[in-house]
Amino acid sequence: MRSARQAAAWAAWSLALNLLWEVAQLPYYSFAPDLGTAGIAWAVVHCTAGDVAIALASFGAGTLATGDLEWPVRRSALGLAVALGAGLAWTVPSEWLNVHVRGAWAYAPSMPTLAGIGVLPILQWIVLPPLVLLAVRRGETAARRHDARSD
User: DSSP label at 25?
Assistant: First the structure.
């Protein structure tokens, strides 16, 4: 039960934080003038859904590496290192493919880049997973206290 609670919390916190990040980085992307507000909103929803999928895959990678579905509480350093690596391993080639090959999106001139990859998407997968981990750990600590009082 605790394992499922941690995975669900990982997904929920990933959704919330990635949605905020996607909205905050909008000025660093170029959009077609005819896209409109609804089109931009759809892009945010689409990208956030992709972020949550990456976050869940990175949670799974942490689980495989630690052999523990409760790694956010019990083996957080190794799990987080693997989750960060998995997130970056997906994001960097995905950004390259979608910007330079598919043309699915484009960076605004204000987007700092490293080797043609936007710095903000890279930072997203360095900054957010540790924040998600902290939120999950705090929530799990509170839940365990509550469970102990209920027993």
Answer: T
* Residue 103 host element (H or E): none
Contact, 96 vs 116, CB < 8 A?
yes
From the CB of residue 110, how many other CB atoms can be counted at a distance below 10 Å?
10
For residues 65 and 61, give the distance between their C-alpha atoms in angstroms, rounded to a whole number: 6
Collapsing DSSP to helix, strand or coil, 120 comes out as helix
* pTM for this predicted structure: 0.90
DSSP tally for the chain: helices H, then strands E: 5, 4
Of the pLDDT bands very low, low, confident and very high (cuts 50, 70, 90), residue 52 is very high
Give pLDDT tens digits for 91-140.
Answer: 999 999 999 999 999 999 999 999 999 999 999 999 999 999 999 999 87
Domain boundaries, the chain: 2-150
What are the DSSP calls for 31-64, one per residue? --TTSHHHHHHHHHHHHHHHHHHHHHHHHHHHHH
